[in-house]
């Protein structure tokens, strides 16, 4: 999951030059004027935004993000436009991202874009392959895909992403960077486009025009900029866009992962559960203008497992690349960025002081291997420190070497949930349990001059036989209590009891500057107290156990070498119950209709390798407008924010921040299909 950064030298003129591609990043002519002419003007952005101001989202795609010049120009135009769609979504692909320092140096050339540059640099990330979602402003989202463009495009669940409105083809010269102009890549662009899509490029090379034409685009030579005679524009005719099929899915091995096209006329959502999963989902939908009602049986948010204070943010590590590894990596990175936005520097709720994970922590069955992790993760994510260096980082002598997460930290989950719920589009209902969900029909007048009405289907949420709320969409996020609802009764959710212990700080322990996780996790002192977290055992017993307290104290002490580094007297204990899944991966996505799936894929009980022909009804195997976000276990602080962002993107039909493989890995239907294959 590592990615190689750009190799740049600086010409005497001050222009950046790529030694990987033997080409300059932009023309020696006025690069700002060229960017404006070749990309913004050629795609008629100002006029289209005026004409399409009714749209919820306008999507721009770019091959070759480079220094971000085109993006900076676009957001400046966006902010200065009198009318435009509600939100701008910019999707860019870059194989070798510039480092932050390189980007900062280049941006100094453009003082007229200083405000836009500052916005990008505040959020920019320069490492790790895959899609990085950057929420730059309330109405501007940047998805940066790092890695080979064709591979990254092919990871997208194209059928569930909206078409891109215009493409900027701005890679290095086709003679020096053939891969970014090949025909397969142009076909991938076409699959992500429709008849409204336009494109433009500085290159009119014959191979580029041929590749685009073979992919279905209609291309034209236009007047070039500066010393270049020509530039290129293109469209995708309606007949060509209709003829484009994504990948051939006539016969599939995994049709149960096909999701129906989502997107709703309404904009009301009900979220069941006010823990991290529910509050983060409410926030992601509220940011998009949705009216959200959050319902919880407790008297306040984060009152159960999410209420442990504080929690440690670190990345769940894997020895080899996989969809699971990619999900937890990007979840960790997205959480970092979101927490930095929600809690400005100095806010005591979020303390990014680093996390040290000792080698005896977690992964006991499959120990982490230094060489494999070094090959997989960038040093900005994690690095192995010797016992001596780890002790220096911790501030107290440690008993072993440790994996260091330099950007990890401690966060108060109650404060996080409160910050989420402060959004004005969120309304909370506490002390109320939802015990029934069912669909109802409502009639809505859609014109005032005539009696024209439309029947709509909504969800009714009920408790104690009375109606609580109606909503277009429901997200179930109430942990193991989800199985009390009929739609979730067969979900394989597991409950794990955990007990935390609080001890008094002393002179030695007050020197602890980082979170240290070993047999137990020890947090730096707050108000002269340390939190020790946490025991882990199956069950739901709410009573504190003396043996768990002893094990917490013993495990915490084993992290350190000096006697009396920690107090051995417990001040208090707290028990909470975590919700997990059999494979340790959250259940996030559309709710499968169990009965329909068992009927549709019953053949799996006789042949676990059976393939199925597409019937046109496969997507009906999911329950319309019902979603699930549960089973985050002990990783919820890292995994909930990105899971919520994915669900909000799926519900509002935006570009999805997760790859198709990651989405399938999270899909709640995976256990039902596994049961069928095992004849359960």
Q: Give the helix tally.
A: 19
Shape: globular
Low-confidence stretches: none
What's the total count of β strands?
34
Q: Give me the CATH architecture of the domain at 8-243, please.
A: 3-Layer(aba) Sandwich
Estimate what percentage of residues fall within beta strands: 25-35%
CATH structural fold name of the domain at 8-243? Rossmann fold
Main beta-sheet annotation: 9 strands, mixed
Q: How much helix, percentage-wise, in residues?
A: 25-40%
Q: What class, by secondary structure content? A: alpha/beta
Characterization of the model:
By secondary structure, this protein is of the alpha/beta class. Among the domains are: 8-243, Vaccinia Virus protein VP39 (Rossmann fold, 3-Layer(aba) Sandwich); 346-407 and 494-574, D-Amino Acid Oxidase, subunit A, domain 2 (D-Amino Acid Oxidase, Chain A, domain 2). The chain contains 19 helices and 34 strands. Strands 17, 18, 19, 26, 27, 28, 29, 30 and 31 form a 9-stranded mixed sheet that branches. An 8-stranded mixed sheet has the order 6-7-5-4-8-9-11-10, with helices on both faces. Strands 21-14-13-25-34-32 form a 6-stranded mixed sheet. α6 runs parallel beside α7 and α10 runs parallel beside α17. The chain is globular. The two termini are 36 Å apart.
């Amino acid at each position: 999951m590592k990615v190689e950064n750009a190799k740049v030298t600086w010409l005497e003129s001050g222009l950046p030059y790529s030694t990987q591609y033997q080409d300059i990043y932009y023309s020696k002519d006025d690069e700002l004027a060229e960017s404006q002419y070749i990309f913004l003007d050629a795609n008629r952005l100002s006029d289209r935004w005026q004409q399409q101001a009714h749209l919820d989202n306008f999507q721009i795609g770019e091959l070759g993000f480079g220094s971000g010049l085109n993006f900076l120009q676009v957001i400046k135009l966006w902010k200065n436009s009198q009318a435009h769609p509600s939100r701008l979504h910019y999707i860019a692909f870059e194989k070798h991202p510039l480092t932050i320092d390189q980007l900062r140096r280049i941006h100094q050339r453009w003082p007229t874009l200083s405000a836009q540059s500052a916005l990008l640099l505040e959020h920019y990330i320069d490492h790790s392959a895959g899609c990085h979602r950057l929420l730059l402003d309330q109405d501007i989202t940047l998805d940066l895909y790092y890695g080979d463009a064709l591979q990254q495009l092919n990871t997208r669940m194209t059928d569930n992403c909206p078409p891109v409105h215009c493409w900027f083809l701005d890679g290095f010269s086709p003679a020096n960077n053939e891969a970014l102009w090949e025909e397969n890549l142009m076909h991938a662009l076409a699959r992500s486009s429709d008849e409204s899509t336009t494109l433009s490029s500085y290159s009119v090379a014959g191979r580029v025009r041929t590749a685009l034409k073979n992919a279905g685009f209609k291309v034209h030579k236009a007047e070039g900029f500066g010393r270049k005679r020509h530039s290129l524009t293109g469209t995708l005719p309606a007949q060509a866009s209709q003829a484009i099929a994504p990948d051939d899915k006539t016969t599939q091995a995994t049709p149960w992962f096909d999701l129906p096209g989502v997107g709703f006329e309404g904009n009301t959502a009900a979220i069941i559960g006010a823990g991290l999963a529910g509050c983060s989902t409410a926030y992601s939908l509220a940011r998009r203008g949705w009216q959200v009602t959050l319902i919880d049986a407790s008297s306040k948010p984060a009152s159960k497992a999410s209420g442990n204070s504080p929690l440690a943010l670190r990345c769940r590590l894997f020895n080899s690349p996989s969809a699971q590894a990619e999900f937890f990596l990007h979840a960790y990175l997205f959480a970092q960025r979101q927490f930095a936005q929600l809690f400005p520097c100095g806010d005591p709720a979020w303390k990014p002081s680093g996390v040290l994970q000792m080698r005896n922590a977690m992964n006991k069955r499959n120990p982490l291997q230094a060489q494999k992790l070094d090959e997989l993760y960038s040093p900005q994510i994690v690095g192995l420190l010797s016992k001596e260096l780890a002790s220096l980082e911790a501030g107290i002598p440690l008993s072993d070497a440790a994996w260091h997460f330099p950007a990890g930290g401690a966060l108060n989950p109650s404060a996080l949930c409160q910050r989420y719920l402060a959004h004005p589009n969120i309304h909370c209902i506490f002390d109320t349990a939802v015990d029934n969900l069912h669909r109802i029909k409502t009639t809505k007048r859609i014109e005032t001059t005539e009696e024209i009405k439309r029947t709509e289907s909504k969800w009714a949420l009920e408790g104690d036989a009375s109606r609580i709320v109606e909503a277009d969409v429901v997200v179930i996020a109430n942990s193991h209590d989800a199985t009390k609802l009929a739609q979730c009764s067969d979900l394989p959710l597991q409950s794990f009891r955990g007990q935390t212990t609080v001890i008094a700080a002393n002179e030695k322990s007050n020197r602890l500057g980082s979170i240290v996780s070993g047999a137990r996790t020890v947090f730096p002192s707050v108000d002269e107290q340390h939190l020790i977290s946490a025991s882990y055992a199956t069950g739901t017993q709410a009573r504190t156990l003396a043996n768990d307290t002893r094990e917490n104290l013993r495990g915490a002490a084993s992290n350190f070498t000096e006697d009396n580094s920690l107090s051995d007297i417990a001040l208090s204990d707290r028990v909470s119950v975590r919700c997990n899944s059999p494979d340790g991966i959250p259940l996030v996505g559309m709710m499968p209709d169990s009965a329909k799936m068992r009927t549709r894929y019953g053949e799996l009980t006789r042949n676990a390798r059976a393939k199925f022909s597409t019937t046109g009804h496969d997507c009906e195997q999911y329950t319309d407008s019902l979603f699930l976000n549960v089973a985050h276990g002990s990783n919820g602080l890292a995994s909930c924010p990105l899971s919520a962002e994915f669900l909000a993107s799926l519900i509002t039909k935006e570009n999805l921040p997760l790859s198709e493989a990651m989405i399938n890995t999270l899909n709640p239907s995976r256990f039902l299909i596994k049961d069928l294959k095992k004849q359960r």
